[in-house]
Amino acid sequence: MTNLTNKIISISPQKRRNNRLTIQLESGDVFGISEDVFLSTPLTVGQSLNPKEIQEILSNESVIKIKNLILNLLSYRQRSCAELMRRMKEKGYDENVISPILVEFEEKGYVNDTEFAKMFAKHCICNKQMGRKLVLNEFYHHRIPNQILKPILDKLYDENPPESLIQGITNKRLKNKDKTQNEKNKLVNQLMRKGFSWGDMESIINKIDWQNK
Question: Does residue 157 surpass a pLDDT of 90?
């Protein structure tokens, strides 16, 4: 904005967004703010604003937008701090503005990497039947510290041993199918894609009576 030391000549509600207001300055500059920002920084027609005051208002508006976006994302499911940071940066917000908001939300319990890791790991292992390699790959962008993630994975794999997961996948794939060498190769490739090593699956694969043709 230019010549921001200006007087407010109008404050009006936006027609299509009831929770937002349009502020018009004598200079002709116009900007919108949310009701939350307006309540925290009361403005009146005739009031003069200097550049620092306007920048502070716009900064507060940016913080409110980020908070609302994060809360909206969290309303669907738990998310990691790293995911929320990435999503906000993709929308063009500055990391230095996002970071204190995430710290605040962690302190309030809205964001919790440990609880997210438990939920996401359970989904990957119990629902998706993934091996550890693939699970770790799925967690890569969430940047969960190893001291948090490892005990969670260890516990889940104790409760859901890789051999049991592999056996379940194998039974489902081979149901009503001939145990040909081609089918064996397909099964091994599927298990590899699922994140299991040959060591995980070897005993199960080798005890199946595969056809030589």
Answer: yes
